[in-house]
Amino acid sequence: MKPRLIQLDRADPGAIRDELLRGLRDDPAAIPPKYFYDALGARLFAAITELPEYYPTRTEAAIFARHADAMARLLPAFEALVDLGAGNCEKAARLFAPFGVRRYVAVDIAVDYLGESLDILRRQHPQLDMLGVGLDFSAHLALPAEAGAGPRLLFYPGSSIGNFTPAAALAFLRRARAAAQGGGLLIGVDLVKPVAVLEAAYADPLGVTAAFNRNVLAHVRRVAGADFSLADWGHVAFYNAGESRIEMHLEAVRDVAVRWPGGERRFAAGERIHTENSYKWRVADFAALLVEAGFRDLHHWTDDKGWFGVFLARA
User: Phi/psi at 144 (nearest 5 deg)?
Assistant: First the structure.
C-alpha cells in the first residue's frame, strides 16, 4: 500500500523568478535561503552535517537518543505526528517507537522526494498510516483534512526556526499552535554559544559550506536567467552579536555586472548578497517566545554543553 501524497503548493516559475529578481534589486541584495536546496544543494548540506565543525545535527540527535523516553512520558495526547520539513524522514522515524506513533504526516515542499522517502519508510513500518503533504509551511500551515481532525504533535527539528527573524518566528509559532489542534510542538533550537564555535560551523576549512553558499547562484542562474559566474563570488559568514545571529553572504571579489532578461545589476568589489540568517536563542528567551505564541506546559532538554535545545510545549 503506497503512502498517500497531496500536493497543496505547486512551484510557479514566474513567481519564483519575480521573487529572486526582487531580491537581487534590493539594497542590500538578498536571496531567500530556501533556494539553497536544489538537488546539488541538498547533497552539499548533507555533507555539511558530517563535518566535525557542524555540531547541530549530531548534538540534536544525541539529545533525542538520550531523552526520547522522558519526552514520551510528557507528550500531550495526539493522533498524528506532523513532521515539518520532513526530507528523508529519518529524524521522525527514530521517534515512532518511543512515541507510539499511529499516523505520520510528512510535510515538505518537495513532494516528489517526499514520496520516495515515504516509500522506503513504508517498507520499514508497514503498519503505520502515512501521508505526504507538499506545502510551503513557512508561508502558511493549513493541513488537509486527510491529516486528521484530532490533536497533532508538530515536529520541527534541525534548528530551522533560526532562519526566521524573531517576529516571523512568533508568527510561525502561532500558526503551528493553531495547526496542532490542541496537541503540541516538539522543536529543535540552536542556542547561543562561543563565537568561535558558531563561526567555524558556517565557515569550515574544507570549504563545503562555501560551496553550498555559492551553489545558490547556480540555482538562480537556472531559474531566473541571471548570468552569475561563481568565480566572482566569495563566501562570508560571521556572528552578528547585536542580532544574535549568524549571517551568510556572498561577496563580489571584483567589480561585476549580473544580467538577466530585461535587467541587470552592477556590484562593486566587496558588495554582498545576503543569503541566510541563523538566529541563536537563549533558553529563557525561546521559552518566552513559545508562551507569547500561546503554548503552555513547557519542557526542554539540552546537551551537556548547552549548545542546543529541544523544547516540548502543549498547544
Answer: -70, 165
Reading the block at residue 45, the C-alpha cell is 548540506
CA–CA distance, 255 with 258 (Å, rounded to integer): 10
The CA distance from 41 to 248, in Å, is: 15
Which of 190, 303, 250 lies closest to 30, judged by CA? Answer: 250
Cβ(29)–Cβ(272) below 8 Å: yes
- Grid cell of 158 as nine digits: 534541525
Alpha carbon separation from 90 to 124, 180, 193, 226, 244 (Å, rounded)? 11, 21, 27, 35, 30
Query: Could you check whether the bond before residue 151 is cis, i.e. omega within 30 degrees of 0?
Result: no
The DSSP result for 188-239, as a single string, is EEEB---HHHHHHHHS-TT-HHHHHHHHHHHHHHHHH-----GGGEEEEEEE
Determine contact, residues 81/95, Cβ cutoff 8 Å. Answer: yes
pLDDT means over runs of 10, the chain (315 residues): 83 89 97 90 91 97 97 97 93 96 91 85 92 90 93 96 96 97 98 97 97 97 96 98 98 98 96 98 98 98 98 98
pTM (global) more than 0.90: yes
Read off the amino acid at residue 152: R
End-to-end Cα separation, the chain, in angstroms: 33
Which strands, in side-by-side order, build the sheet including 103-108?
Answer: 4-7, 129-134, 103-108, 80-84, 152-156, 184-190, 308-314, 296-302
